[in-house]
Amino acid sequence: MQNALLIGLSRQVAFSRELDVVANNIANINTPGFKGNGAMFEEFIGKTAREGKLSRRDAQVSFVRDRASWVDMTQGSMVRTGNPLDVAVDGKGFIAVQTPAGERFTRNGAFQLNAAGQMVTSEGFQVLGESGPITMQPNDRDIRISADGTISVREGANASAEAQRGKLRLTAFDNPGLLKKEGSSTFAAPANVTATADTASRFVQGSIEKSNVNSVLEMTRMIDVSRNYTQVANILQQQSDLQKSSIEKLAEVPN
């Protein structure tokens, strides 16, 4: 009986973890550049609560254990915004940004300008170009971002000539699945992941990449996990009631 309770408890912990992952995906459905997460579980062979005289094989119980989570790196759909500071990446590349923790990478191209004229992410991280942070001048207008990331502007109201303010840096990784997610749409590159300049991906100005989370699928997963969690909870309650009833009956047996 104790083994049934332990097995059920391990399954509940796994369902709780999976529910957290699904809930986070649903919460970020509208976050540009967000990449959905999935949960990974594995079988864990443990000993029974009381082995007694059982054989070695019979004394083993199969539990479930939370192993890890993984990130779905598939590209999300693009949506047109018309904002000249918005860019979507068509391809597998990542935009380099500067954070307090160091250089990081993102697919969230919903950029804006801070008080110093620097192009930053929604979190306030500086967007990096091939020569450092991208900075605009107070009289810049008609910002244009080409497919290769070159940023051009017109200086002043009557300026006819274009000036360049840098070129967005795109980075590709040999195994993007190993990137470590930090926050909703920012990634860190571990030492064992090779980064290279990405010349295959292209920028699309005035658009952003939507989250790649399938809302219908995630809601279905949430309902399914919630039902399974409730079923296991009912089984555990039945086992607990059975144990309580057995103890009560044993107490009624005369000495």
Descriptive tags:
2 domains; 3-stranded antiparallel beta sheet; alpha+beta; 8-stranded antiparallel beta sheet; 255 residues; 19 strands; single chain; 2 helices
Written overview of the protein:
This protein is α+β, with helices and mostly antiparallel strands and 255 residues long. The protein has two domains: 2-73 and 213-252, no CATH class; 78-208, no CATH class. The protein contains two helices and 19 strands. It has helices at 2-27, 215-252, and strands spanning 37-47, 60-71, 78-80, 87-90, 94-99, 102-106, 112-113, 119-120, 126-129, 132-133, 140-145, 150-155, 162-167, 170-173, 180-182, 186-188, 195-197, 202-205, 207-209. The strands form six sheets. Strands 5, 6, 9, 10, 14, 15, 16 and 17 form an eight-stranded antiparallel sheet that branches. Helix 1 runs antiparallel to helix 2 (215-252). The protein is elongated and about 105 Å long.
Q: Short description, anyone?
A:
The protein has 255 residues and is an alpha+beta fold. The chain contains two helices and 19 strands.
Low-confidence stretches: none
Helix/strand order: HEEEEEEEEEEEEEEEEEEEH
Bin the strand percentage: 25-35%
Biggest sheet, open or closed, and with what strands and sense? 8 strands, antiparallel
Overall geometry comes to elongated
Write the layout of secondary structure elements.
Blueprint: H1 2-27, E1 37-47, E2 60-71, E3 78-80, E4 87-90, E5 94-99, E6 102-106, E7 112-113, E8 119-120, E9 126-129, E10 132-133, E11 140-145, E12 150-155, E13 162-167, E14 170-173, E15 180-182, E16 186-188, E17 195-197, E18 202-205, E19 207-209, H2 215-252
Helix pairs in contact: 1-2
